[in-house]
Amino acid sequence: MTTKKLIRIDLTLFIVILLLEIFFSLGASASSYIIQFAYNQLAKNILIGFLFFIVSSIFLSFISTLLSSLATYLFSKQTQKYIHYIRDKIVKHYYYNNNSKVAEMENELNSNLQLLNKNYANQLLNIIQSIFLLITSISTLFLMNWSLTLLACILAITTLYIPRFTRKKSSLATKQISNKNSKYLLAIED
Questions:
Q1: CA 159/CA 124 separation, integer angstroms
Q2: Closest to 91 measured CA to CA, from 117, 118, 110, 114
Q3: Is the N or C terminus of the chain more exposed, i.e. has fewer CB atoms within 10 Å?
Q4: What is the per-residue DSSP string for the chain?
Q5: What's the rounded Cα separation, in Å, for the pair 116 and 134?
Q6: Are 42 and 50 in contact (CB under 8 A)?
Q7: How many Å from the N-terminal Cα to the C-terminal Cα in the chain?
Q8: Lowest mean pLDDT, pick from 101-105, 140-144, 153-157
Q9: Dihedral (C-alpha) 76, 82, 88, 90: value to the nearest 10 degrees?
Q10: What is the pTM of this model?
Q11: Are 53 and 37 in contact (CB under 8 A)?
């Protein structure tokens, strides 16, 4: 299974999926961005303005969720087309090679293709969604205040690297706990 072949199986459908994902991420970010205007209206005691922005935010969130669901459905159709293509090649391979190992063919057709779908294709859609959400979220933060973007980037990098800094100490502590636990269990046994 390759990404190129998955995309080429129906290029038009894949472009539609990408567009839906872009609109989903734009809608989700716009929904979050609009909330600040609702809070401003609330601070000014303008209830109608507050309700307008809240309803707009909810509407955008709803539309975004629909677009994301539609993109996921269409990507599932795209993936199924590709899996049918792979299955066709596998069956032809077994048929033309006069291979009589039915169990092996059944395993290839069911288990392995399901794993490919679950571990590869679905992850590709998650990566595409995450990239678009990251871009639109950074843009939204930048529109609010550039320092928020900088702070979010610093916090994201810090969050990613904290486990690396604590890994050695954590492993040492786990070993010590394990040793003490085994001594404790031996003492109980005696």
A1: 24
A2: 110
A3: C
A4: --HHHHHHTTHHHHHHHHHHHHHHHHHHHHHHHHHHHHHHHHHTT-HHHHHHHHHHHHHHHHHHHHHHHHHHHHHHHHHHHHHHHHHHHHHHHHHHTT---HHHHHHIIIIIHHHHIIIIIHHHHHHHHHHHHHHHHHHHHHHH-HHHHHHHHHHHHHHHHHHHHHHHHHHHHHHHHHHHHHHHHHHHH-
A5: 26
A6: yes
A7: 57
A8: 101-105
A9: -100
A10: 0.71
A11: yes
Higher pLDDT, 116 or 26: 26
| Calpha distance 172→174 (Å, rounded) | 5
Write the pLDDT tens digit of every residue in 39-89: 999 999 999 999 999 999 999 999 999 999 999 999 989 988 888 888 888
- How many angstroms separate the CA atoms of 70 and 177, rounded? 49
Please, what's the b/e burial string for 125-140 (b: 16 or more CB within 10 A of its CB; e: otherwise)?
beebbeebbeebbeeb
d(C-alpha 118, C-alpha 127), whole Å:
14
Is 41 in contact with 152 (CB distance < 8 Å)? no
Residue 33: which of 148, 120, 121, 173 has the closest Cα? 148
Enter the tokens of residue 5.
Answer: 């072949």
